[in-house]
Amino acid sequence: MPVIVKDYVWRQTEEQLYISVPLKGAVAAASGVVCTELYVKVNFPPFLFEVFLSAAVDVDRSITKIGNGVILFTLYKQEPAIWESLSLANVSKETMQRLRENAIARLQEKAKDDAQSKAVTKRENEKYSLEIMMKIDEEERKRIDLLKEEERQKASEELEKFKEQQRIEEEQRRVQKEQKRKEEEKRRNALNKSIVSNSLKPSVQERHKIERPVPPTRKSGSIKIQFTPRVFPTALRESRIPEEEEWLQKQAEARRAINTENLDLQDLKEEEKNPEWLKDKGNKLFAAGDYLAAVNALNLAIRLNDKMPILYLNRSACHLKLRNLHKTIEDTSKALELLTPPVPDNAAARLKAYVRRGTAFCELELYVEGLQDYEAALKIDPTNITVKSDAEKIRRLIQGSG
C-alpha cells in the first residue's frame, strides 16, 4: 500500500510554478518521475505523490531537481496567469485514469525516441572514435619514428664526442708521463751531486752537536669537580630566582598566544577561567577584525564549558569570516543540537545558526542543503525579507536560472 505524500509545498508566479515534495531518502537513481502538461507523479516506494494540474505547463522547459530527500519541480505555465489552486477540483476517476494513461504513453514514446537518438549518437561516436584512434595511432607512429631518428643521431654524436675525449685524455697522459720522466731524471742527477758533495765534508750536526737535558716525568694525581644540582635550563651562576619566574611567565603567555588547545589550565589568569569573560573578549576581538584571536578565546571558553550554544554560534561566525566552511558547519550543527527544545527564547539563535550553516553549504556549492537551512530559518521568522531574498537566489541557482 503506497503512502500518499500530502505535506508538499507549492507557490507560483504568473509564468512559473514551484513544487517542493519531501521524500525521505529519495535519490535521483531510484525515483520515478512523470511529468506531462496536466499531470505530475513521483513514485519512490513506499511514497507516492501525484497531482492533476489546474492548467497546462510547458514540459520541455520544466526542471526537476532530486537530492537529499527533497524533489523540487520548476514548471513553466503555457499561459501566464495566477492559478486559484494547484490541482483540478472534482476530477472523475475516468479523467484521472485517462491522464495517467496519456502520461505513460508519452513517456514510452519519449523513451523510444531517446533510445533511437542514443543509438544514432552511439554509432556516430564510435565512428568518430575510430577515426580519432586511427589518427592518434598514425601520429604516435610518426612520433616514435622521429624519436628513434633523434636518438640515433644523439647516440652517434655522443660516440664521436667520447672518441674525441678519449684521444685528448690519452694525449694528456702521454705529456704528463713525459714531464714526470724528465722531473725524475733531474731529481736523480741532483741527488748524485749531493751525495758526492757530502762525502767530502763533515756533517753539520756533528760540528754543532748540543747536549740537551731530558725533562722529568710528571707526577700523577686527580681533580675533584662538584656540580650544582639544577632542574632549570640554565646553571644557577647564570640565572636568579626572579629571572626564572619572569621566564616561566613569558613561556605561559607564549603558549596562550600560540594555541589554546595545548594550554595548561593552570597557566590561566583568574578572569580567563570564566567562560562569560572569554565570550565577551571574543566578541570584542571579532568586532576589531581579529578573527583568529577570537577563535582562540572561544576555544578556551568551550574547553571550560562545552554546553553553552552561544560559544559555538559565535565561533561559527569567526570561522565563516576565515572561510573555514567545514568548521562553520560543525559549530552551527553543535549549536542547533544544544538549542533544544526549540522555544521562542532561542528562536533568534536558531535563526542565526540555520542562516550561517546554509551560507557555508552554498559556499561549498551544496545548494540543496543550503536551501533547506534557509527554509528552516524562514519557518522561524517568515517576515525576514533578507532571508527570503537569499532563499530565492539559492532556488534560482538550483533551477539553473541564476
TrEMBL record:
Residues 176-221 are annotated as: Disordered. Keywords: Cell projection, Cytoplasm, Neurogenesis, Nucleus, Repeat, TPR repeat. One of its GO terms (molecular function) is nuclear estrogen receptor binding. One of its GO terms (cellular component) is nucleus. Residues 176-188 have a biased composition (Basic and acidic residues). Residues 191-202 have a biased composition (Polar residues). It is found in: Cell projection, Neuron projection; Dynein axonemal particle; Nucleus. Residues 3-87 form the CS domain. TPR repeats lie at residues 351-384. It comes from the Eukaryota. One of its GO terms (biological process) is outer dynein arm assembly. SUPFAM superfamilies: HSP20-like chaperones, TPR-like. Its main location: other. This is Dynein axonemal assembly factor 4. It comes from Eleutherodactylus coqui (Puerto Rican coqui).
